[in-house]
Write a structure and sequence with these properties.
Elements: E1 7-8, E2 10-18, H1 20-23, E3 35-41, E4 43-44, E5 47-48, E6 50-51, H2 61-73, E7 84-91, E8 97-99, H3 103-107, E9 118-125, E10 131-135, H4 141-149, E11 157-160, E12 167-170, E13 176-178, E14 182-189, E15 195-198, H5 214-220, E16 234-235, E17 241-246, E18 251-257, E19 261-262, E20 270-277, E21 280-284, E22 287-291, E23 296-299, E24 307-310, E25 314-320
Antiparallel strand pairs: 1-6, 2-3, 3-7, 4-5, 7-14, 8-15, 9-12, 9-14, 10-11, 10-13, 16-17, 17-18, 18-25, 19-24, 20-23, 20-25, 21-22, 21-24
C-alpha cells in the first residue's frame, strides 16, 4: 500500500521575497534576502517535488503518479500529472498585477498548459497590507487598456486589507496581486502560466521596466466578474472542519484542532499542511509522520485509518479534488 508521502520543498528566490518562510514557517533557506516561495507539492515540467523519506525516497511526484496512480488517485484516476500545486509565499514587496488563463485558453499555448484557478489563505498581514482581486464595478476592456497605457491601472483594481485567516478565491481570468507584508498559503492548478499587465511603473537598476503581456492579459480577463472579496466560510458535518472553497478544480477545507480526529476514508487523495499552531502527528498503518509548522503531507487515496493528533491547538489546510 502506498504510504503517506512527505516531499522536499522547492524554494524560489524572487526580488519581492524575504525570509519569513524561515522565521515564521521554519523552512531551511539558503543565504540571501529574497526567498519568495516554497513549493510544497508540484508536478509541472522540470519543477518536481521529490519524496523526502520512506520506501519511495528520491522519487519525483511525477514518477509516483506514473507508477502508483491507482493507489494515489483512487476515484479520480488515471491522470497523467498531479493536478494541484501547493505553495507558501512571502510577499515583502507588492507583486505585479497578473491574470491567468482558463483550461481552454491554456490548451492553446505553446507548449500547452492547464489553466490556473487558485485560492489564498492569509497567514500573516502587516498593517496596511492589501490584496488586489478583481476589477472595480463597471470597468471594461477599453477603460482598463486606457488606464494601463496611462500608468494608472491601480485605479481600476478592487482592493481590501485582509486579516489573518481570510481566504480569497481567484478564478482564472481574474485580475489580482498580492500586496507587500503578506504571508500566504496558496493552492492552485498545476500550471505556471502568468500574464503580467501592470508592474506599478517600476523599473530595474538599468531604468528598464519588466516585460508586460498586455494583449494576452486583456484577452484573458473575465470582465464580467467584477470585484472579488474574502470568502464566506461554510460549515460542514464535522465541528472541526470548515469549507473555504469548493469549485470544479479543488476543495479547500480548514481544520481547527484541539483533540485527535479520524479522517474519513473517501477514496481520494488529500494534501494536508500545518499552517499554524502546534506540531501534529499523523498516525496510520504505514507509521507515524510528525508535522511541524509549515510542513505538508500527501495522503494517497488508498490511505486507511489515518488519525490526526495535535499537540495543542493546530490549524491545518486540507485540499483535494471535488466529486
Amino acid at each position: 500500500m502506498l504510504p503517506p508521502l512527505c516531499f522536499r520543498p522547492i524554494f524560489k528566490n524572487y526580488l519581492w521575497g524575504g525570509r519569513r518562510l524561515e522565521s515564521m514557517l521554519g523552512k531551511s533557506l539558503g543565504d540571501g534576502p529574497h526567498w519568495a516561495e516554497s513549493w510544497e507539492l508540484v508536478d509541472h515540467g522540470d519543477d518536481q517535488s521529490v519524496v523526502a523519506e520512506g520506501p519511495l525516497s528520491g522519487m519525483t511526484l511525477h514518477q509516483v503518479v506514473g507508477q502508483y496512480g491507482s493507489e494515489l488517485f483512487g476515484q479520480h484516476g488515471p491522470q497523467s500529472q498531479f493536478p494541484l500545486l501547493l505553495k507558501y509565499l512571502d510577499a515583502q514587496r507588492t507583486l505585479s498585477v497578473q491574470v491567468h488563463p482558463n483550461d481552454e485558453q491554456g490548451a492553446q499555448l505553446d507548449p500547452p498548459d492547464l489553466g490556473k484557478t487558485e485560492a489564498w489563505v492569509v497567514l500573516a498581514a502587516e498593517p496596511g497590507s492589501k490584496i488586489y482581486a478583481g476589477l472595480k464595478p463597471g470597468v471594461d476592456r477599453q477603460q482598463l487598456a486606457a488606464a494601463i497605457d496611462a500608468g494608472r491601472c491601480d485605479e481600476c483594481l478592487h482592493s481590501f486589507e485582509p486579516a489573518v485567516g481570510d481566504c480569497v478565491f481567484i478564478e482564472s481570468g481574474t485580475v489580482h496581486a498580492l500586496g507587500e507584508g503578506l504571508v500566504i498559503a496558496e493552492i492552485q492548478q498545476a500550471s505556471n502560466t502568468t500574464f503580467r499587465l501592470f508592474d506599478w511603473n517600476r523599473v530595474d537598476t538599468d531604468g528598464q521596466p519588466r516585460p508586460l503581456h498586455i494583449e494576452q492579459s486583456l484577452a484573458t480577463i473575465n470582465f464580467a466578474r467584477g470585484p472579488v472579496d474574502r470568502q464566506v466560510t461554510q460549515t460542514t458535518g464535522d465541528d472541526y472542519r470548515e469549507r473555504l472553497v469548493q469549485c470544479d478544480k479543488f476543495v479547500l477545507d480548514r481544520f481547527k484542532l484541539r483533540s485527535p480526529i479520524k479522517l474519513p476514508i473517501d477514496n481520494r487523495f488529500h494534501i494536508l499542511t500545518l499552517c499554524s499552531g502546534a506540531a501534529t502527528t499523523l498516525h496510520s498503518p504505514a507509521g507515524n509522520i510528525d508535522l511541524s509548522l509549515g510542513q505538508t503531507v500527501l495522503l494517497p487515496a488508498c490511505s486507511e485509518h489515518v488519525i490526526i493528533i495535535p499537540r495543542g491547538d493546530a490549524t491545518l489546510l486540507d485540499m483535494y479534488l471535488p466529486g
